[in-house]
Amino acid sequence: MIDGFDTATFVAATLAEDLGQGGDITSAAVIPAEARLTAVMDSRDAVVVAGLPLAEAFFRALDPACTIETLVAEGQAVPAGADLMRIAGNARALLMAERSALNTVQHLTGIATLTRRYVEAIAGTGAVLLDTRKTLPGLRALEKYATRMGGATNHRLRLDDGVMIKDNHIAVAGGVEPAVRAAKAAGLTGVVVEVDRIDQIEPALAAGADRLLLDNMDVPTLKAAVALVAGRVPTEASGGVRLETIRAIAETGVTYISVGRITQSAPAADVGLDYA
Predict the structure, then answer these.
(1) Which of 131, 143, 215, 236 is catalytic?
(2) What per-residue confidence (pLDDT) applies to 1?
(3) Which pLDDT score, from 0 to 100, does residue 171 have?
(4) Is residue 135 a part of any domain in this protein?
(5) Residue 11: which residues within 8 A CB-CB, separation 6 or more?
(6) pLDDT at 206
(7) Residues 248 and 271 occupy one common structural domain
(8) Residue 169: which CATH number?
(9) Known catalytic membership, residue 184
(10) The pLDDT value given to residue 3
């Protein structure tokens, strides 16, 4: 369903966490076993939708015979009050799956919605928004899926998914140039190196860096760095990027802007499931 993510295992583990050993004792006590439920999942806010296929997987895990109509597309921006999904099936089963399904949609939709705000803030500049590895343990593939639904481009997924020489690598290796040369000598390609000072740029390029991550630089310094690089390699601005500052950063001419906040700080969307 989502590349790099085991949906079946996630659904089973999440439902096991919520149901415990005894299952939904409330529904079992007050709802007849044969009762049917028709419900609509809707958004109480304007959002960018993500996670509906996972919600469907939760409902079908407990009622394989339920009928589900998805009313909007993943990545679609919808207004407050929009209906997202219509579900009909065994009442006990659907109510048991409700919280797991909603938690997932609320979290992923929240990420997609915040991501879209960042994407819109840099529209027309040519800069590309990237996510980061600042994700909840175990949920990285899901959260990076949500950033894609919001319009971002995924940065590396794992440590083996790309070479990124950061400040601590540089400190241990003895400097930018020896660190980059060691990576190149190891046969690595696509080497990204973090620099936080202008004077590190030429040594990094001389050693063969394929991309420069310009870390925690203010706007004037970013402009100077981009001018010095002069298109020899792509550049990436990173560190402390906020919605109110990203436009000015993009206008410096950087190729990419990576933002941890779109996964770290996205509030959950207000999505509910109501009896219909």
Answers:
(1) 215
(2) 67
(3) 96
(4) no
(5) 54, 57, 58, 61, 100
(6) 97
(7) no
(8) 3.20.20.70
(9) no
(10) 78
**Is 215 one of the annotated active-site residues of the chain?**
yes
Is residue 194 among the annotated active site residues?
yes
Q: Is 99 a catalytic residue?
A: yes
Residues 101 and 165 occupy one common structural domain: no
- The verdict on 12 and 65 lying in the same domain is yes
Domain shared by 106 and 176, yes or no: no
Mean pLDDT of each 10-residue bin along the chain, 276 residues long: 87 97 96 97 98 98 98 98 98 98 98 98 98 96 97 96 96 96 96 97 98 98 98 97 98 98 97 94
Q: Kindly state whether residues 174 and 86 are assigned to the same domain.
A: no
Pairing of strands 47-48, 77-78: antiparallel
Q: Which residue has the tokens 């980059």?
A: 180
- What's the CA gap between 25 and 96, in Å, rounded? 10
Own/partner contacts of 28-36, CB < 8 Å, gap of 24 or more, are 28/92, 31/91, 31/92, 31/95, 33/92, 34/90, 35/90, 35/91, 35/92, 36/88, 36/89, 36/90, 36/91
Q: Would you give the DSSP letter of residue 131?
A: -
- Of the candidates 194, 210, 211, 261, the residue annotated as catalytic is 194
Q: Would you call 60 a catalytic residue per the annotation?
A: no
Counting the structural domains of the chain, the total is: 2
Range of the domain at 195: 153-258
> Phi-psi bin for 188: left (phi > 0), alpha (psi -120 to 50), beta?
beta
**Surface-to-core class of residue 275, CB atoms within 10 Å of its CB (0-12 exposed, 13-18 middle, 19+ buried):** exposed
